[in-house]
């Protein structure tokens, strides 16, 4: 029998936000600037806008399915429509895009250097626990979904 929700004990956006803030503050103490250009800033704006749009699309798909976006709560349905047709984790993909966009706007290498650790933390603290829960909750349906849709893109 599946547990009531995934064994996630952290707020996923904070896994991205806290290191981003710390790395950005580190840039004030020990600057590692990215090359300055208008293209970098515009790309940062585009990535943040794309992240907001993807996040809204994913949340709307989950609400249409009458299920929760809170990882430690019980989900009522396996969502495979909308952005979930393209990514098993579109909300976390949106978080990563926003992280990259803000990194470009801040103009520092520090957040990029920290990003691999952030993604590993997401995998270990959030995604693997959610996948374990969804496999227990939805069995063969989740296995089939997992075989046809990639984790990120």
Topology of helices and strands:
Blueprint: H1 12-29, H2 38-64, H3 90-106, H4 110-148
Largest sheet, strands/sense/barrel: none
Helix-strand makeup class: mainly alpha
- Rounded to an integer in angstroms, the radius of gyration calculated over CA atoms is 17 Å
Shape: elongated
Number of E-type strands: 0
Low-confidence stretches: none
The DSSP helix count reads: 4
How many structural domains are formed by the residues?
1
Helix fraction bin: 55-70%
Order of helices and strands: HHHH
What does it look like?
Helix 1 (12-29) packs parallel to helix 3, helix 2 (38-64) packs antiparallel against helix 3 and helix 3 (90-106) packs antiparallel against helix 4 (110-148). This protein is an all-alpha fold and 153 residues long. The chain has one domain. It is elongated and about 50 Å long. Helix content is 66%, strand content 0%.
Summary, kept brief:
With 153 residues, the chain is an all-alpha fold. The protein has 4 helices and no strands.
Tag the structure with descriptive keywords:
153 residues; mainly alpha; 4 helices
């Amino acid at each position: 029998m599946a547990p009531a929700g995934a064994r996630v004990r952290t707020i996923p956006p904070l896994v991205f936000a806290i290191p981003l803030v710390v790395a950005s503050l580190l840039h004030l103490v020990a600057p590692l600037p990215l090359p300055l250009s208008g293209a970098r800033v515009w790309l940062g704006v585009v990535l943040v806008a794309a992240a907001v749009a993807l996040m809204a699309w994913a949340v709307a798909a989950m609400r249409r399915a009458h299920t929760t976006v809170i990882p430690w709560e019980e989900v009522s349905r396996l969502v495979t429509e909308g952005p979930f047709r393209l990514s098993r984790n579109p909300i976390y993909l949106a978080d990563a895009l926003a992280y990259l966009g803000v990194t470009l706007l801040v103009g520092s290498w520090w957040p990029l250097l920290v990003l691999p650790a952030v993604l590993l933390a997401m995998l270990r603290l959030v995604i693997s626990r959610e996948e374990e829960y969804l496999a227990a909750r939805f069995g063969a349906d989740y296995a089939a979904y997992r075989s046809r849709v990639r984790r990120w893109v």
